[in-house]
Amino acid sequence: xxxxxxxxxxxxxxxxxxxxxxxxxxxxxxxxxxxxxxxxxxxxxxxxxxxxxxxxxxxxxxxxxxxxxxxxxxxxxxxxxxxxxxxxxxxxxxxxxxxxxxxxxxxxxxxxxxxxxxxxxxxxxxxxxxxxxxxxxxxxxxxxxxxxxxxxxxxxxxxxxxxxxxxxxxxxxxxxxxxxxxxxxxxxxxxxxxxxxxxxxxxxxxxxxxxxxxxxxxxxxxxxxxxxxxxxxxxxxxxxxxxxxxxxxxxxxxxxxxxxxxxxxxxxxxxxxxxxxxxxxxxxxxxxxxxxxxxxxxxxxxxxxxxxxxxxxxxxxxxxxxxxxxxxxxxxxxxxxxxxxxxxxxxxxxxxxxxxxxxxxxxxxxxxxxxxxxxxxxxxxxxxxxxxxxxxxxxxxxxxxxxxxxxxxxxxxxxxxxxxxxxxxxxxxxxxxxxxxxxxxxxxxxxxxxxxxxxxxxxxxxxxxxxxxxxxxxxxxxxxxxxxxxxxxxxxxxxxxxxxxxxxxxxxxxxxxxxxxxxxxxxxxxxxxxxxxxxxxxxxxxxxxxxxxxxxxxxxxxxxxxxxxxxxxxxxxxxxxxxxxxxxxxxxxxxxxxxxxxxxxxxxxxxxxxxxxxxxxxxxxxxxxxxxxxxxxxxxxxxxxxxxxxxxxxxxxxxxxxxxxxxxxxxxxxxxxxxxxxxxxxxxxxxxxxxxxxxxxxxxxxxxxxxxxxxxxxxxxxxxxxxxxxxxxxxxxxxxxxxxxxxxxxxxxxxxxxxxxxxxxx
Length: 762
Fold this sequence. Notes:
Layout: E1 5-15, H1 21-31, E2 35-41, E3 44-52, H2 53-65, E4 72-81, E5 89-91, H3 112-118, H4 162-169, E6 190-194, E7 197-201, H5 202-214, E8 219-222, E9 227-232, H6 236-246, E10 254-257, H7 260-264, E11 267-268, H8 271-277, E12 284-289, E13 305-309, H9 314-320, E14 329-334, H10 346-353, E15 359-363, E16 375-379, E17 382-387, E18 397-403, E19 406-408, E20 418-427, H11 437-453, E21 460-464, H12 470-482, E22 486-489, H13 491-502, E23 511-521, E24 527-535, E25 540-546, E26 549-550, H14 561-571, H15 581-585, H16 588-600, E27 606-607, H17 610-620, H18 632-639, E28 653-654, E29 657-658, H19 661-672, H20 677-703, E30 707-711, H21 718-730, E31 734-736, H22 748-761
Parallel strand pairs: 2-5, 8-15, 10-13, 12-16, 19-21, 21-22, 23-30, 25-29, 30-31
Antiparallel strand pairs: 1-3, 1-4, 2-3, 6-7, 6-15, 8-9, 9-14, 10-14, 11-12, 12-13, 16-17, 18-20, 19-20, 23-24, 24-25, 26-27, 28-29
Helix pairs in contact: 5-9, 13-22, 14-16, 14-17, 17-18, 20-21
């Protein structure tokens, strides 16, 4: 034994289970001539090593440098211990510790090694639709409990064959303790059924499914975290049938193609977008659509972008494999009726989707937790999330400080919930709009699953200020049942806080918050949405807001931009010509009722919503009079912007109010002068960008603040975001935008936990 021979105990926390971490440690220890052991525990990975001190130091350094691709190391704690004189290095069985937890890896797309093996005729997993290894495949969607071992996943019912067992038990093999590992002899299988009849199985089922897609049929495909509805994206009849059956009028469909080369035929792809498309997460990426493409118009009506993803499961690759005459691009949309959560249980899927799909490509690997596809885009070369779900959730988000154990219930639309433990926030996958029993049930089930996985017992509950949100009602019910404090959080304050957390903000210093969205109940019971705040995690003040204008019909107005436009004009005392688009869209009786509503203040709650202002402008200039999904009018208004238009509308402010009447007057004037829609739209965007900077300059003159947080669904508008950021930076401001969580309501619950923690701590 050398003089430097010693022993060390090492504790590693982070995403270190189910990602090939123990075999990595095993091989690393052997390479550095160390003896000892490694094991999973309920809180991470534990290692004991004996060896020369210099070898141990190199070993520890290399753990961080060369960790497996899906691992995320949050901390490495070391402790000198007595030498135990081990004969070799071994992998011990997992240690389950009551109350401890370990972060769970999200589901990941098939890795290049598995993809290569799947198409290798000599490989025993040739064309096997469930091939996976420690570097890829299902994780979060199949785990029932921790530690992440096969008996605690939905793979527990599949006994390993001799060959798979040998791989599973060999630390030098890529499939060592890959919990979903399987092969054609012992693993899950696919079959095709229609009308309750079993039509084909295995490879024959895949080939018949391809033939059905080629023939224009709609297929329900059981995937990683739920069902997709698939059809040929170039077949207008198939796409229109899918829209009709799914009851989804205009909202864009997600698309899938076999390769980047195919996607490039239809969209512009930057280097950063290519990296995002091919990342282990394989999210849907919003890409600039090329002109003159041959896809069905019904794929994404009125859009300048298309949402594409690459195949992320082996089954997707087999289903979409190129062949002469075979379609290149497929709709691959969530398997649900409009506004319902994605179906993920076999019997439930057949019941819910039988009126949509002509057939079902099924498999017998159970899904424990439904997970919808993530939606992203690239902004300034980096990820800008729109919907955080598969591939990202439930990966924890680091917090700037240690928090109480908190449950935050999020908002009504684009709901996520959030649970905290120590300095980590476990933001849920995308739940959806809490507008029906099915989605509420998914929300409640998800909360219980997260509480169990991460061993969290909430000490308090946070909820939106709006009393009628189903998430708020759930929070009240649970707080009463468990006798827990309930913290009500104003919607836009939560947006501001979410942006700060997203950027690792660890200061009590206040910032300027440009919080622009569609709906959020204000402290004065007015529907806010065009808010300029000054605040931090603990408190906020409202420095500026849009003029209060009537919202005819309340929440239902979101579907009627034409009514919003005329209501805004009437309330502003502006006469409009009878030839104005919203006036011609509404019949005489509708216009009469609307005028009476405004005059007598009948069912016309006031709003300062920026989102509704976009709706009004879109309707005024003839872009969108009736919306079939949230944000449609604004999306289509942005889509026609002309980058070469230099002019901007002047939007003044008086005291704390941003005056909308002068803006409407300028738009009416340009419309009357036959200024093109493209110019009017661009001048509106330019005017809002300049207004945003002028408001920030005014606040800076009063407070010296220079950090500006941009949050809220309106900042999904890339034209407005780009223009505003450029002007803010030009004026010396330090802007913060979202990079880990969506700027829309999908990030609200993250902001709620920070605010609730501050309020309970004071």
